[in-house]
Design goal:
Four Helix Bundle (Hemerythrin (Met), subunit A), about 80% helix, 6 helices, elongated, about 0% strand
């Protein structure tokens, strides 16, 4: 069975905002890698193919947009205007979110094609090709956020501001 790892979840108690966002990044990496494995792995059974494609499709259509909103509706307004370098990183982050949309749409099409033709190799090859392009794009993006933006969270946001953002993150997931 193809599986992915977990990570921190949005629970009920006080949590660390940066750690929650990092856990989201780990899930993004995991689902990106899962898409590549589905497209590349030989001997994958029909059930594993279907379940894997459905999980990846669901993650990138439901969970990833929530994470983008977490960053754009939560982090950006709280961090903008505090430091010029941070502002540039925030602008780049939002711009890259838009730049990823066509490749994410292509991934969804490749997943649907793989589901529609599970016995055919060509759709899975296309899925592997799209995932191979998407993975490094996302990795560069995530790495930059982790290096430039996430360290600013504990430095620039109070505990109360972070907890408020966590409440907003949780509300988006209800």
């Amino acid at each position: 069975m193809i599986s992915i790892g977990g990570g921190a979840r949005f629970g009920a108690g006080p949590e660390d905002l940066a750690q929650l966002l990092l856990a989201c990044h780990q899930r993004i990496r995991s689902f990106s890698a899962l898409a590549l494995r589905i497209g590349s792995e030989e001997g994958l059974g029909a059930v594993e193919l279907r379940e894997g494609c459905e999980r990846v499709a669901r993650y990138f259509t439901e969970a990833l947009p929530l994470h983008v909103k977490d960053e754009e509706e939560g982090l950006i307004p709280q961090l903008r205007g505090r430091e010029p370098e941070l502002d540039r990183a925030l602008e780049q982050m939002a711009s890259e979110h838009r730049q990823h949309e066509p490749l994410l749409a292509e991934l969804q099409r490749a997943l649907q094609d793989a589901l529609s033709e599970p016995a055919e190799r060509a759709p899975r090859t296309q899925l592997a090709q799209v995932a191979a392009l998407l993975g490094p794009e996302l990795e560069r993006h995530l790495d930059q956020e982790e290096r430039l933006i996430f360290p600013a969270i504990p430095r620039l946001l109070s505990f109360d501001a972070q907890q408020q953002l966590i409440l907003e993150l949780r509300a988006r997931r209800r």
